[in-house]
Design brief:
Shape: elongated
Oligomer: single chain
Distance between the termini: 108 Å
Low-confidence stretches: 1-27, 36-54
Radius of gyration: 43 Å
CATH class of the largest domain: Mainly Alpha
Helix content: over 70%
Order of helices and strands: HHEHHEHEHHEHHEEHH
Strand content: 5-15%
Number of strands: 6
Number of domains: 2
Number of helices: 11
Mean pLDDT: 85
Structural class: alpha+beta
Largest sheet: 4 strands, antiparallel
Length: about 450
């Protein structure tokens, strides 16, 4: 009791700070342990949070889709390697002939080993060493190099034309996805609206206001809306799969989606202006025109190959203790072969290339006319819908629905108005997608997406 009630001794006083230090250390340890546990928990939660974040679909615009396709489409990337191959052929065509080195030793006493003396080797054995070089005449190397460069320019134009066709294909698939998405939204909107009609019909049936047969007809109409949604979703999945293939599977994730709407963009450019622009910008026509230049270069190369070349040699000879130099030159006698067959063939290739270029220019003009008329026709159809038919179908449905709910119209009249409205809305969206596709076709026919 005296110990408990008395004043603390010197030892007890000294022990108090130690106990408090231990308590402080335990508090720090607890804080460290709690922080570690929280860190581990956050580390385990981060992948889940990242997974939730990454699950959001990547949405791309039309311009971004075209950019990704031009960068990542494997077929186009394979076509671009043709340019590098053609440029390597330029290097090969511009190479000079290699000089030739020759040498020989004659009269070696192989079967008489006793004659292997320095005197015999200096007087009896003949040593020859020489170097030769082929001198090309008629500017063969320059003609080869120019022909290879012209072929490279043709390849570059052909690859550019592949980019043009790929751009058109990407836009077509992009619009197909937009149409499918618009159809889904329309079907879901109609289903939600018609669900109210079904609910009202069910209430009327329970109250005895309509027969069971009329109520079943209303319910069966729901099947069409549900089928439209399923078909539109399937169409969107298929369109996205084809678009994914054009973009390249490594370019975008599997759950990507498109961003955009079906919009009307009027074009006021004249047909003659589009024709003249197409003749300047179409890459397939440019490739055909460059093929004429390449054929002319091939004809010049054939004429250059018809010129004879000279081979010169310088030989060093040591025999009978005497060293000497010899000079030789040889050339073919162009009596029979003057490369006349290849020259005649390349002249015919020039004529063929010129005719193909003319055909390509006519094809360009035909493509522009067809695309322009297709755009004009789709524009007229859209004007019909936007001019009143679209609103008329909606007003007819609303009037029929109002009249049916008040007993002034039959169920069949209401359902027929509903089907007409849905068909008109769907046809309008399809016409809008067709107009956008026709506009993209006109861009492809002209050769540029920047129409005046």
């Amino acid at each position: 009791m005296s110990i408990l009630s008395g004043p603390p001794s010197r030892i007890e006083k000294a022990s108090v700070p130690r106990i408090r230090g231990v308590a402080c250390l335990s508090c720090r340890a607890r804080r460290i342990i709690v922080s570690a546990i929280l860190g581990i928990s956050m580390a385990t939660m981060c992948p889940a949070l990242l997974a939730q974040t990454s699950s959001a679909p990547v949405r791309i615009t039309l311009d971004r889709a075209i950019e990704l396709a031009l960068q990542n489409n494997p077929t186009l990337k394979a076509e671009r390697t043709l340019i590098a191959q053609s440029q390597a052929q330029e290097v090969t065509a511009n190479l000079r002939p290699n000089p030739t080195l020759n040498g020989d030793i004659q009269f070696v006493p192989f079967f008489s080993p006793s004659n292997f003396t320095s005197t015999y080797l200096d007087n009896g054995v003949q040593f020859d060493a020489g170097i030769g070089y082929l001198f090309e005449r008629g500017r063969k190397r320059q003609s080869r190099f120019q022909s290879a460069k012209d072929n490279t320019s043709v390849t570059e134009a052909q690859v550019k034309d592949n980019e043009r066709t790929l751009t058109f294909s990407v836009a077509q698939q992009f619009f197909a996805v937009l149409l499918a998405q618009s159809t889904i939204e329309l079907a879901e909107q109609d289903l939600k609206s018609f669900q109210q009609t079904v609910d009202i019909g069910q209430a009327q049936y329970k109250a005895g206001a309509i027969s069971e047969g009329d109520f079943l007809k209303i319910r069966l109409q729901m099947l069409q809306f549900q089928s439209d949604i399923a078909a539109a979703k399937l169409a969107k999945v298929q369109a996205l799969a084809l678009l994914h293939q054009l973009l390249g599977y490594a370019a975008v994730p599997d759950n990507f989606d498109v961003e955009g709407e079906l919009t009307y963009q009027p074009i006021h450019t004249g047909l003659d202006d589009l024709k003249s622009l197409a003749l300047r910008t179409r890459t397939d026509l440019l490739a055909a025109q460059r093929s004429v230049t390449a054929a002319q270069s091939a004809e010049k190369l054939a004429e250059a190959n018809g010129k004879f070349d000279v081979t010169a040699n310088v030989n060093y000879t040591h025999v009978a203790a005497i060293s000497s130099l010899s000079f030789f030159a040889n050339m073919p006698l162009q009596i029979f072969n003057r490369n006349q067959g290849e020259i005649a063939r390349t002249k015919s290739v020039i004529t063929q290339s010129q005719l193909q270029a003319t055909a390509a220019s006519e094809q360009v003009l035909s493509d522009v006319v067809n695309a322009y008329e297709s755009l004009h026709t789709n524009d007229q159809i859209l004007q019909l819908y936007q001019g009143g038919y679209l609103n008329d179908s909606k007003s007819s449905r609303d009037i029929s629905e109002y009249a049916y709910r008040r007993g002034a119209a039959s169920l069949l009249d209401f359902l027929d108005a509903e089907r007409t409205y849905r068909a008109t809305e769907l046809a309008y969206r399809q016409s809008l997608a067709s107009y956008m596709s026709a506009l993209e076709q006109l861009r492809a026919a002209v050769g540029t997406r920047s129409l005046p």
